[in-house]
Amino acid sequence: MLEVKALTFSRGSQQFCYNLRAQRGEVVALLGQSGCGKSTLLAMIAGFVKATGHVSWNGQSMLEQSIAERPVSSLFQSHNLFDHLSIRQNLALGLDGSLKLNKAQQGHLHQVAQQLGIADLLDRRAADLSGGQIQRAALARALLRQRPILLLDEPFSALDPVLRYDGLKLVQQLARQHQLAVLLVTHQLSDARAIAESVAFIDQGQVVQQCSPAELQTHPANEQVAHYLRIANESLFTGEDGALA
Ligand SMILES: Nc1ncnc2c1ncn2[C@@H]1O[C@H](COP(=O)(O)OP(=O)(O)OP(=O)(O)O)[C@@H](O)[C@H]1O
């Protein structure tokens, strides 16, 4: 289990202090208004910013571990694949910087590529793929690292609704199959409803509520959460006939 307790970081006058839990095999959606500190929480867990307090995986503290040592892999909206390299080379880079994979690594790469439906794209250049194919490749690269905590920061937000839904369902399937603890930053309440066992609502650098998506809906912790849900649910931007208001 990923356990975050009073994990604290200060930037200027802003303070971030988080409490959160994520079990193996479960997706936790991070919701909250823009600028509330969702990405900052991921950066603190990954070790990109230096925090104090407590963050552990299966009881072992990660705080003193370097970024490379932490049991974490991440995928952000900007996928950082190299355009001029093939997908195979991009994935191999996740395993070995020299691109020299042994037989077992090559087999593993192929197996993950097959599971994500990109096995027939391995010899194409990243520059020649569509957005959805690229995000699948980036997800494959993150999975190849075989880390039990997967941090996803709006990885599919630039995709069309069908591809986004497919990507999210794939994440849920992978979390269950590989017993990953997944933290998913999203601006869409519907994403949380579709795949998350648990939702952490963040406001001003704190998790103000962590519960099931259904409980968030029925028992919002405060007026801030209730207001966010009202807006997310009501689709304020459309008139009764579905046209833009
Ligand atoms: N590198 C940085 N330097 C200074 N301030 C930053 C930096 N990164 C983020 N912030 C500030 O920290 C706060 C939290 O930012 P963060 O990116 O974590 O929010 P978020 O909830 O992920 O936002 P969004 O939903 O818009 O992506 C914001 O006020 C932001 O302006």
From TrEMBL:
<dbReference type="GO" id="GO:0005524">
    <property type="term" value="F:ATP binding"/>
</dbReference>
<dbReference type="InterPro" id="IPR003593">
    <property type="entry name" value="AAA+_ATPase"/>
</dbReference>
<dbReference type="InterPro" id="IPR050093">
    <property type="entry name" value="ABC_SmlMolc_Importer"/>
</dbReference>
<keyword id="KW-0997">Cell inner membrane</keyword>
<dbReference type="InterPro" id="IPR027417">
    <property type="entry name" value="P-loop_NTPase"/>
</dbReference>
<dbReference type="Pfam" id="PF00005">
    <property type="entry name" value="ABC_tran"/>
</dbReference>
<keyword id="KW-0472">Membrane</keyword>
<keyword id="KW-1278">Translocase</keyword>
<keyword id="KW-0067">ATP-binding</keyword>
<protein>
    <submittedName>
        <fullName>Thiamine ABC transporter ATP-binding protein</fullName>
    </submittedName>
</protein>
<keyword id="KW-0547">Nucleotide-binding</keyword>
<keyword id="KW-0813">Transport</keyword>
<feature type="domain" description="ABC transporter">
    <location>
        <begin position="2"/>
        <end position="229"/>
    </location>
</feature>
<keyword id="KW-1003">Cell membrane</keyword>
<dbReference type="InterPro" id="IPR003439">
    <property type="entry name" value="ABC_transporter-like_ATP-bd"/>
</dbReference>
<dbReference type="InterPro" id="IPR017871">
    <property type="entry name" value="ABC_transporter-like_CS"/>
</dbReference>
<dbReference type="InterPro" id="IPR005968">
    <property type="entry name" value="Thiamine_ABC_ThiQ"/>
</dbReference>
